[in-house]
Structures are given as structure tokens and as C-alpha cells.
């Protein structure tokens, strides 16, 4: 028919169809007048368009009158899907009748499309027989047709399928309705070149309802497929097109993905690895992580585009639901990459900007900051959360809150006592483990226990909560006791620490970690027999726990059973999962690696005790090599975040964002020493100049790690019979990680890198690395000193100083070296330097007290030694011994006898290394 049209009529028809495709209703009347003028046979098309005009204007009017918008869809659920308010049948009756009168006068093609529009008009009304009308209009039309048209007629086919689905829905024929909606998805996906506003509208309607209806039927996998199709199509829609419905669709897609992954996504195989069940649904963990990251980003963008800051007494519960789902999905799939952790923190901060003093958001922020390692910010979030949660519970009815469901708590932003208690326990761990604030840690732990005893006695996880809370309380008491300067308080605190840990064991007798912590506490107060018995129980429950074996070895060394302690080291290291002979060093966590390295250090010290300093030196190079593996950057800190899609879509973020730990790697690794010009060691060098030994971790210009340096290798290895030519170069931590990880992510190559503040975690890890490296050099220095190799001892101390000049042990060892060389004046300067860095350094204070005793200054010696034994040096045998000598020299024999006996008790129970310095107080 269109072939017989004049050129003018064809142009008008094309423009008319474009206006219909854009729903440009004001232009319809003029196009209709012009089209019928040039094509008398176009009467059906014209009246069809005029019916569309009537329906469209009626819908606009009713929505305006009832103030209806798509914002209503933000609350859609599978059982309650919001629809546009129906129009009155009378408002379009005239247009319907006109079209029906002329329906038989047009070509067959025009009649079919007119029937679709009539069905669409009937479905939009409030007529009681509208479903029957739809069926009547569509009864002779094949949907979808065998051959699909193009342009606006293609949109009309999508309209017909959608209207058919809506009618089937009203009849209760949900599966049949879903089939009709799925046909829309199928044809749109296979004809991606078709694009127009009306097609977008009907496609969105069909895919949206299809996904929700499939959820209504409980078919999450099918719903996922529909919502995935929705998302694919949404990428082609205008940016502001039906954003509320998009937010709702992403909400349900995220929840459906999570549910599907937990139920049918994967199952553990015979070797413990994931086995994909639904190969066609893309439920591989890695792929799903990437998909969820993208969905979360689009969900966030679409929701925030239609969300304003809440008013008084309002809650942006939709934001709370979203952030809750994001957190749950991260827990499900893991958040190992440092960039992902950073992205999660930024996501929560953005949520805080759309809510007002939300305790739930603060709780998520606290845990995310702890996970990221930003402990200083986490402390602020913790304080704000606990203050806010306490205020909320004071002003609200706790009894009514207890009856709320989880969803109601989320919507009302109400924290349960369980949530508050878990934050208190985590806060206690943060204060004790990371921030060294035992008083705050004890306050959090005690508050958690109060909550459990008063509110959570019937909670299903009460045993786990009590175990964790008692552990935290015991550790906090122990830390307070070990750092107090009040001798009368120390026994009480230690007794409370033991009591708390015993309570933890009563609650959870099978928890090896409580037994380990109790054994460590017994060891600290020199209850050696009890400690050995308890730590053996811990090992029997978990034979792969390195610190338990380490503690047992130290306990045996405190009984001077060094041979047996060495055999325990061999057994424990063999049992360890961090077995470097079988792994590349990265199969377990870095903290496990640090525990493993600490155990190996103790083994070397015991070798020294049993076989002499030369035997201890045999292990030095292996320890340095192990150090480079333990403190190399973790693979999880490399690469880019799965959530980079957010950075692409965020207007307030730079494309050059890079996480702080990665920045540290780029700038030279995590364990870079600092050579200085004003060094006591350099000025006191025997050759009169600075040391020619490079740092174990080079300065910023160094590209290699040498353990030890070539000119020093002979002095270390000469005692163990190796040749300097066999000395091998070991890559630095950053290089070692690069060798294992291949090329760095492109974000690492961005120049110049942005300046970012490193996380507290990375700063603390650098400090630990420097401390361990300095300790290794000081072990070498001690062995050389006892072997009489003073030059080598001084070189080793210089290396320790280059790595960590703020370590008081460096200057203490230097003082011992000069004392062995009879240079008391310089030794005194070194001890003073150590005390300037750590005023309560027990070993240094004992040495200073001895120097006053040797000089006959008994009052000075007594003052220093007595304050030392009352404070942090209460377990220092030398301090008690010299104090006894002071009392003996001043004829106070009774007190002298007490001090000397106590010194003997401490010496006979002294381990090869300090229990609390060698072992972790927390079980990872």
C-alpha cells in the first residue's frame, strides 16, 4: 500500500510515525490533517494515532490529578507492583468509536496495529470488562508475528505483547503472562538496532514485570535472567528514564543474585573447591563478584538520583536497604582486594550523605574501616555509633523494639542489642590489638557482657558472644596489668584476666583460642605448670596453630629444657600450614606468616642457647630470606577494584584513584629504612667514618635487597663455612611480589600518583616489619659480641639502626657492645638514648641502676631500680638482683634477701624470649 503513496505522503507518514514513536502528542493533530490530505486511504492510521493521543493525554491528566509518579515504584515487591492510575473509559470513548467505525476501511496491516492500540486503550481504562475487551481486540492477531516490522510498528508489537501479558496477569494466568513478557525481551534482544522512546517504555514495562512475577513464583534463577535483560536494555535508555523503577529492579536483581548463589550457585567439590551447578547462569564466584559490583553501582546511582536528604523524623530506608544488601553481598563473595575495601568505605560514606545520623550506616562504616585498616577513623565511627545507639535506646521503647523483624529494623533504622554487642566486641578488639588502649577495650568488653547478660540470654548465638566478650575482657585486663605503674593493682588485674579467660572456656570448652589465651596469661604471671597444661589442650584442639606451639616451646625454655623446646619447634613448624617448603609463602595470611617467622626466630635463639652463638648464626641468612617473603606485599593489595565501575560513573572521583597500600608499594615498599646523617653509630664507627654497609631494605634509590651485603657476607658466613661467592641476592618485598603477580595493574602506572594518606594498618605493618628486621640484625650483633667479633657486632647494629633508629633495643645493644669493650662512657650515652626513646625500658634501667651501684651511688641506684621493679620491670630479674645488692650494701638484709630470692625465681622461669613480645595476644 505504501508503494502507491506519493513522495509527499511518504515523507509525511515517516514524520508522523517518528512523532508517534516519541509520543509527541501536540504534533499529532497537524500530522493527521496533512497525512489524510495526501493519503485518503490512511484513515485507519490517522484514527489510530488520534486514539493514542486521547489515551496519552488522559494518562497525563490523571497522573497529574492524583500526583502519581514512578516514585511509587520504589516500594514495589513481587506481590505488589505499582501501576499507573487507570483512566476513565468516557474520556477516550469517542476516539475508540471513531477508530472502530473506520477499522475495516484501511489496509490489513493498519488494522492489526489499530487493534493493538485499541487493546492498549482498553487496558488503560477502569472499565470492568477491560480484560475481555483486550482479548477481543487481540484474538485475530499473532503475537509475536512471524515477521517483525521495523520502526514504530516494532514498538507496537512490543506494546501488544505487554498488554497481552497485563491482561493475562489480571486473569491470574501468571505463567502465561510471563511468556508474553519474555517474548518482548527475546525480540528486543535480537533486534538491538530498533530504538525509540515508546519501544523503551513498553520494553521496560515487560521486563520489569517479568522479573517481579518470576520472584512471586519463587523462581529466582528465571528472575535473574529477566533482570539481567532489563539491565542490558537499560544501558541503551536515556539517563533519567524511569529511574525509580530501575532502582527497584536493581534491588531485586541484587537480592536474587545473592539468593541464587547461596542456594544453587555453587557447592563444595571433593577437594573443597567450588563446583558450578548452573553453568548457564554465570554463577562463577569471580564473575558474580564483578556483576554484583556493577549492579550495586547502577543501583546506587539510580537511587541517589531520585533521593533527597531526609527531613525531620524521616528515614531514607531505601538507602538503608541498599547498603545492607551491598554489605551482605560483600560478605558472601568476599572483599579481599584493598581497592575493593576502599571502594566499600567510599560507598558507605556516600550513603551517610543521604541519611541523617544513621546508626546502621555507622556500624557498617566502622567494620569497613577496620577491614580497610583505617583504625583512627574506625575509632571515631565506633564512638559515634555507641553514643547514638545508647541515646536511641534511652528514648525508645526497648520492649517494642525487641518484637521488630529484621526488615522492620532496617526500615526504621533501629539497632538490635545483638548488633550493638557485636560492635562492642569488635571495638574492644580494635582498642586492644590495634590502638593499645586497654581501658577503652575493657569498657567495650564489659558493656558487651552487660548487654548479653541482660538482653541476650536467649539469643541463639549467646555462647559465641559470651566467649568473644570474655576473651576481650581477659585480654584488656591483661594489657592493663602489663602496662600499669601501680604495683598494688597489678595482681588484681592479672587475677581478673585469668578469671575472664576461664569464663570464656566454661562457655565454649572446645575453643582452642580461649585455651591459648589463658595459657599465655598464665605464662606472663609465671604459672608455668598451668600454662603448659593449658597450651597442650589448645594444641590438641588445633595442631596447626603456630602461636600455641611457639608458647609451648617458650614455656619449656623457661624451665631450661632447651633440647625439648627445640624438638617442639621442629614439630610445630612441621605442623604449620605456613610451611614454606610446600608453598610460595602466600597461601596463608601474612599474619600467619609473621607468627611463623617469630617461631623461627625463637628456634634460632634456642639453637644459640643449646649449641652456642655460632649455631645461632647458621640460621641468620634463612631468617632474612624468610623475612622478605613474610613482609612482601600481599597479592590482595595489588590490582584494581571490581568496583571500578563506580569510579567511572562517579562525578566526584578521579580516574587516578589508587589505594594507599598500593601507593606504598610504588614508593618503595612497606619496610624502607631511613639513613640519616646525625647517627651516633656513624660517628662512633671504629674506622672513623660512616658504615659502608647498605641497608637491608635500601633507601628510595635502592632496587635490590641483599641479605647480607657482599662486603658483610664474609663476616657472617665465615663462622658457618660458606664462601662469599655463594651469596645470593634476594629481591625486595615489592620486587618479590611483582615476580609472583606479573605486571602491575594499570592504576600503578598512572603518573604522577595521587598523594594519599596511608592506612593505619599499613603504617603499623611497616613499623612491625622494621621492628622484626632490626631484631634480626640485633640477634646477629648479640651473637658476634659473645663470640668476641666486635667489629661485626657493630656493623650489625648499624644495620639495625638504619632500619629502625627509634627502636630502643638498638641503642641498648650498642650499650652492651661498648660495655663489653670497657667503654663505659659511650655505653652510658647509648643507654641514655634508649631511655630517651622509651623511658621505662626495663633492661636499660637495670643497667643504669647497676652503673650507679658500681659507682657507689646507692640512693640513685635504689631510686631507679625500685621504680623499675614497681612498674614495667616487675618481671626483670636483673633489676630485682641489683636492687637486692643495693639493699645488701646498705645493710637492709631482710629486704635484700627478698629481692634476691625473687630475682632467682624470675631467672629460673625466664623464657628464651619474652612471652608477650614474641606471641600475639589475639588469635586471628
UniProtKB/TrEMBL annotation:
PROSITE patterns, per database record: TPR (PS50005)
Pfam families reported in the protein's UniProt record: TPR_16
InterPro entries xrefs: Endocytosis_PI4K-reg_protein, TPR-like_helical_dom_sf, TPR_rpt
Ranges occupied by TPR repeats: 808-841, 877-910
Keyword hit for Heme: no
Keyword DNA-binding: no
Keywords associated with the record: TPR repeat
Gene3D superfamilies membership: Tetratricopeptide repeat domain
Region entry Disordered, spans: 651-695, 717-740
Biased composition regions of type Low complexity, renumbered to the chain: 673-686
Function: Involved in endocytosis.
Family: Belongs to the YPP1 family.
Protein name: TPR-like protein
Species lineage: Eukaryota, Fungi, Fungi incertae sedis, Mucoromycota, Mortierellomycotina
Amino acid at each position: 500500500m505504501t508503494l502507491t503513496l506519493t513522495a509527499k505522503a511518504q515523507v509525511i507518514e515517516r514524520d508522523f510515525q517518528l512523532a508517534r514513536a516519541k509520543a509527541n502528542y501536540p504534533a499529532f493533530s497537524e500530522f493527521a490533517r496533512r497525512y489524510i490530505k495526501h493519503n485518503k486511504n490512511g484513515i485507519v492510521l490517522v484514527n489510530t494515532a488520534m486514539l493514542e493521543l486521547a489515551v496519552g493525554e488522559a494518562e497525563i491528566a490523571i497522573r497529574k490529578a492524583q500526583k502519581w509518579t514512578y516514585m511509587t515504584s520504589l516500594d514495589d515487591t513481587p506481590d505488589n507492583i505499582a501501576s499507573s492510575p487507570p483512566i476513565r473509559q468516557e474520556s477516550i470513548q469517542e476516539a475508540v468509536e471513531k477508530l472502530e467505525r473506520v477499522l475495516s476501511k484501511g489496509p490489513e496491516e493498519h488494522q492489526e496495529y489499530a487493534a493493538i492500540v485499541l487493546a492498549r486503550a482498553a487496558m488503560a481504562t477502569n472499565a470492568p470488562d477491560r480484560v475481555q475487551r483486550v482479548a477481543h481486540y487481540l484474538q485475530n492477531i499473532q503475537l509475536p508475528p512471524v515477521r517483525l516490522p521495523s520502526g514504530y510498528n516494532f514498538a507496537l508489537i512490543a506494546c501488544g505483547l505487554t498488554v497481552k501479558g497485563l491482561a493475562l496477569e489480571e486473569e491470574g494466568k501468571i505463567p502465561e503472562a510471563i511468556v508474553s513478557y519474555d517474548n518482548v525481551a527475546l525480540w528486543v534482544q535480537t533486534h538491538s538496532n530498533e530504538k525509540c522512546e515508546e519501544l523503551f517504555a513498553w520494553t521496560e514495562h515487560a521486563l520489569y514485570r517479568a522479573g517481579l512475577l518470576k520472584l512471586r513464583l519463587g523462581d529466582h534463577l528465571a528472575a535473574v535472567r529477566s533482570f539481567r535483560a532489563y539491565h542490558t536494555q537499560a544501558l541503551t535508555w536515556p539517563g533519567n528514564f524511569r529511574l525509580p523503577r530501575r532502582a527497584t529492579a536493581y534491588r531485586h536483581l541484587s537480592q536474587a543474585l545473592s539468593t541464587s548463589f547461596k542456594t544453587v550457585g555453587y557447592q563444595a567439590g571433593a577437594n573443597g573447591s567450588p563446583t558450578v551447578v548452573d553453568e548457564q547462569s554465570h554463577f562463577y564466584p569471580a564473575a558474580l563478584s564483578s556483576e554484583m559490583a556493577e549492579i550495586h553501582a547502577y543501583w546506587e546511582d539510580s537511587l541517589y538520583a531520585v533521593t533527597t536528604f531526609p527531613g525531620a523524623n524521616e528515614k531514607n530506608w531505601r538507602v538503608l536497604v541498599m547498603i545492607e544488601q551491598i554489605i551482605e553481598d560483600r560478605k558472601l563473595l568476599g572483599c579481599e582486594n584493598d581497592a575493593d575495601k576502599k571502594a566499600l568505605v567510599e560507598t558507605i560514606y556516600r550513603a551517610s550523605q543521604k541519611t541523617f545520623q544513621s546508626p546502621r550506616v555507622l556500624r557498617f562504616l566502622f567494620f569497613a574501616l577496620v577491614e580497610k585498616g583505617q583504625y583512627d577513623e574506625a575509632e571515631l565511627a565506633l564512638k559515634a555509633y555507641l553514643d547514638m545507639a545508647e541515646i536511641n535506646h534511652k528514648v525508645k521503647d526497648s520492649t517494642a523494639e525487641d518484637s521488630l523483624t529484621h526488615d522492620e529494623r532496617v526500615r526504621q533504622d533501629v539497632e538490635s542489642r545483638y548488633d550493638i554487642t557485636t560492635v562492642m566486641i569488635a571495638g574492644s578488639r580494635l582498642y586492644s590489638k590495634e590502638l593499645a588502649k586497654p581501658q577503652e577495650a575493657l569498657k567495650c568488653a564489659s558493656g558487651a557482657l552487660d548487654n548479653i547478660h541482660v538482653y541476650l540470654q536467649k539469643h541463639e548465638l549467646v555462647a559465641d558472644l559470651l566467649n568473644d566478650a570474655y576473651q576481650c575482657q581477659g585480654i584488656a585486663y591483661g594489657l592493663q596489668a602489663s602496662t600499669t605503674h601501680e604495683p598494688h593493682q597489678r595482681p588484681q588485674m592479672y587475677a581478673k584476666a585469668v578469671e575472664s579467660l576461664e569464663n570464656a572456656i566454661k562457655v565454649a570448652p572446645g575453643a582452642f583460642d580461649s585455651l591459648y589465651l589463658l595459657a599465655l596469661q598464665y605464662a606472663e604471671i609465671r604459672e608455668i605448670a598451668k600454662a603448659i597444661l593449658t597450651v597442650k589442650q589448645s594444641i590438641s584442639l588445633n595442631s596447626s596453630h603456630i602461636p600455641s606451639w611457639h608458647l609451648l616451646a617458650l614455656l619449656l625454655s623457661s624451665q631450661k629444657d632447651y633440647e625439648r623446646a627445640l624438638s617442639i619447634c621442629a614439630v610445630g613448624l612441621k605442623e604449620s600450614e605456613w610451611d614454606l617448603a610446600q608453598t610460595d609463602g602466600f597461601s596463608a595470611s601474612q599474619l600467619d606468616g609473621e607468627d611463623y617467622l617469630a617461631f623461627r626466630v625463637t628456634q634460632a635463639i634456642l639453637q644459640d642457647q643449646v649449641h652456642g652463638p655460632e649455631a645461632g648464626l647458621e640460621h641468620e641468612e634463612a631468617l632474612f630470606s624468610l623475612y622478605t617473603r613474610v613482609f612482601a606485599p600481599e597479592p590482595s593489595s595489588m590490582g584494581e577494584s571490581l568496583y571500578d565501575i563506580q569510579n567511572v560513573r562517579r562525578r566526584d572521583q578521579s580516574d587516578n584513584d589508587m589505594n594507599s597500600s598500593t601507593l606504598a608499594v610504588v614508593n618503595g615498599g612497606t619496610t624502607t629504612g631511613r639513613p640519616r646523617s646525625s647517627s651516633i653509630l656513624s660517628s662512633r664507627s671504629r674506622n672513623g667514618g660512616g658504615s659502608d654497609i647498605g641497608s637491608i631494605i635500601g633507601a628510595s634509590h635502592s632496587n635490590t635487597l641483599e641479605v647480607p651485603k657482599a662486603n658483610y657476607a664474609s663476616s657472617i658466613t665465615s663462622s658457618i663455612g660458606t664462601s662469599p661467592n655463594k651469596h645470593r641476592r634476594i629481591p625486595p618485598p615489592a620486587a618479590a611480589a611483582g615476580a609472583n603477580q606479573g605486571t602491575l595493574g594499570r592504576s600503578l602506572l598512572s603518573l604522577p600518583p595521587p598523594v594519599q594518606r596511608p592506612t593505619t594498618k599499613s603504617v603499623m605493618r611497616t613499623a612491625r616489619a622494621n621492628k622484626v628486621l632490626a631484631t634480626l640484625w640485633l640477634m646477629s650483633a648479640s651473637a658476634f659480641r659473645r663470640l668476641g667479633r666486635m667489629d661485626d657486632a657493630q656493623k650489625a647494629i648499624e644495620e639495625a639502626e638504619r632500619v629502625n633508629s627509634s627502636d630502643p633495643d638498638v641503642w641498648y645493644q650498642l650499650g652492651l657492645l661498648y660495655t663489653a669493650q670497657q667503654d663505659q662512657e659511650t655505653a652510658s650515652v647509648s643507654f641514655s638514648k634508649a631511655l630517651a626513646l622509651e623511658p621505662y625500658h626495663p633492661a636499660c634501667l637495670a643497667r643504669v641502676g647497676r652503673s650507679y651501684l658500681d659507682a657507689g651511688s646507692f640512693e640513685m641506684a635504689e631510686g631507679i631500680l625500685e621504680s623499675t621493679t614497681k612498674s614495667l620491670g616487675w618481671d626483670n630479674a636483673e633489676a630485682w638482683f641489683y636492687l637486692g645488692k643495693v639493699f645488701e650494701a646498705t645493710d637492709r638484709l631482710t629486704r635484700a634477701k627478698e629481692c634476691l630470692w625473687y630475682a632467682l625465681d624470675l631467672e629460673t622461669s625466664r623464657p628464651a624470649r619474652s612471652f608477650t613480645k614474641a606471641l600475639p595476644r589475639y588469635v586471628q
